[in-house]
Amino acid sequence: MEKANERVLVTGGTGKTGRELVRLLAEGGVPVRAASRHPGRPAGGGAEAVEFDWARPETHAAALEGVGSLYLVPPALVADASGQVVPFLRRAVDGGVRRIVHLSAMGVDAAPEEVGLRKIELSVMGSGAGWTILRPNWFMQNFSESFFLAPIIERGELPAPTGSAAVSFIDSRDIAAVAAAALVEEGHEGAGYALTGGRALTFGEAAETIGTTVGREVRHVDVEPETMRRVMVEWGMPGDYADMMMGLFGGISAGWSAAIDDSVGRVLGRPPISFADYARDNVDAWLPATTRSA
Ligand SMILES: NC(=O)c1ccc[n+]([C@@H]2O[C@H](COP(=O)([O-])OP(=O)(O)OC[C@H]3O[C@@H](n4cnc5c(N)ncnc54)[C@H](OP(=O)(O)O)[C@@H]3O)[C@@H](O)[C@H]2O)c1
Question: For the chain, which domains are there?
Fold first, then answer.
């Protein structure tokens, strides 16, 4: 019989890291509940799905029922989500959550306390639950699931105002694997893991690798910042979030995103997934629908 509060609640359970984490936990026999605004979508494995909306606190109690561990992904595309996340954390810990693994972002530990993501980190650390904070660099999956995808498919172009600066992109499957370890193994409490790939690539190298994998030319276009902002807003990103993203592109240009950390290897006992392997595993994303593998 399932013990009380043994269940793991995965917020962002349909997202780039969350859906893979749900699969890993379900495959490992861990009771897991995937939270989403659209719970009808398959959650993967033997997991449950629950309706959950950060902006609708009335959906929170059912999601937290019987939950002892939480994977916390603040809502994507909200510049400061602390007003939604902080009260939820209090409710979660009051209801029996004892372990929190929080998906933050690289560099947030150095951000001022008034920055939304840092406010959430501090709230996790002060929650009274055992915590682990994951601070990943840019996800490889942004090229196959985000605002970079349409220009790659439509024009063979990867727009980014980054010159020849490099980024140690990480595969979101590695982030999920680290999250799974932090949720089910002992020894990760109080740790903050900077998560990067094993190599830093320029956007030119990323474009070339995608092009080689797909079998067509894909080239990096070093666009003006206004053009980049327009690409993101046309994709559906709110303006204030796009402004924040432009700050992150500035950080890339300044060389801040090229650092390599060995946390993935230390936690997983294997090297991070390479960009070439990521591209091979996601090749369908860049192919016309008619030529995709079944
Ligand atoms: N992408 C990167 O390169 C990167 C790098 C570092 C850190 N991060 C951090 O990772 C997190 C995830 O970012 P992402 O852009 O990659 O997104 P994602 O995890 O791929 O997708 C967003 C997830 O959040 C859920 N969600 C969005 N709004 C929600 C709401 N109002 N209520 C409930 N669930 C909601 C979505 O579920 P439904 O749509 O199914 O409801 C989806 O599962 C962000 O906090 C970001 O700061 C991302």
Answer: 7-136 (3.40.50.720), 138-170+196-259+269-288 (3.90.25.10)
